[in-house]
What we know:
The termini are far apart. The protein is mostly beta strands. It contains no helices and eleven strands.
Amino acid sequence: QVQLVESGGGLVxxxxxxxxxxxxxxxxxxxxxxxxxxxxxxxxxxxxxSVFWRGGVTYYADSVKGRITxxxxxxxxxxxxxxxxxxxxDTAVYYCAFKSGFRAGWESQETDYWGPGxxxxxxx
Length: 124
């Protein structure tokens, strides 16, 4: 079992920055990804970014490249999602996610574990 706990969501204005955190605990084994998905009202849950824990290689959705950065802090077993220049269309519930294995591509149905989610609201 793996537990994921997000924090850092909130209400911000367009152009602001926000950093989300995801604390990872439990039995993670050796090869896995930790990432972020988001789900806006009326839309499907969509991949945002991920990091392969062993080597730190990162992956991003094209829509967020240049504005969002994912990173990990091994000592704290924590993954961060730094979001800059936020837009109203970034408004969503952001979910931390965990996937075992080596394949970088990540569809939501491939997720092994989800966090409860944290709301991010960007006002115009």
